[in-house]
């Protein structure tokens, strides 16, 4: 997971990717994420809670909402950091517009001297660190979903699902960095790719630690809670970071239409629907 993401992040420095492939691939990854969250994570969490308690409260759905809002809060942190970094520059309006493109996947091709909000110069080192942490926040929870998987088959399915999304996200991040910041900063590309790549493996380690230190019903409770939160994280990433905006081609593309994007998302959801037959 780390090496594929890291390679994807630095690859635009050496290789010019086909933008149509990235455009539809990002939408496909969004469909995979959406299908995984609702058909796999949410169903597993709800079933496990049903075995653990007789209460009729919708624990899994509540935790999915919590995971969604938690990830949304991470984006709010990004907006806050961007707003502080632009104080005295573009004014408060810049911070407001930055909300629309605050994540690496949401590559906006500006004109003139404008920069992608992810890479604006923040006012201090602490702001920069906070920004990186916020960008990698949801990746940690994605990794936890792998670490707490109940079976080897579940772990592999979660692994390839997350890796697919992260490869496209890392490539888009690398393209944005090289295109919108002058002097092609190789070291900065490596640093951002490393941070983005290592975040999910850290989450896997956390998930493994949770799974290894809990037994019996405690382990089941931790699994159900993790899957519920992960569902909300996946839904937010799928809708806001991949499907609704996704990758923006620099040049006009025949496939950059809602219909082709819908087909790509449909294919992603369909793949998960077929895979779930053997779950």
TrEMBL record:
Q: Which UniProt keywords apply?
A: Membrane, Transmembrane, Transmembrane helix
Q: Does the keyword Cell membrane apply?
A: no
Q: Please list every transmembrane segment annotated in the UniProt record, as residue ranges.
A: 21-39, 59-82, 128-148, 160-178, 185-209, 221-239, 259-278
Highest taxon of source: Eukaryota
One Pfam family, please name it.
Zip
What's its membrane topology? Multi-pass membrane protein
**Which molecular-function annotation in GO is an example for this chain?**
zinc ion transmembrane transporter activity
UniProt xrefs under InterPro entries: ZIP
GO cellular component annotations of the record: membrane
Q: Does the keyword Transmembrane helix apply?
A: yes
Entry's localization field? Membrane
Query: PANTHER family per the record?
Result: ZINC/IRON TRANSPORTER, ZRT (ZRT), IRT- (IRT-) LIKE PROTEIN TRANSPORTER
For this entry, the protein name equals: Zinc/iron permease
Organism, by scientific name, is Artemisia annua
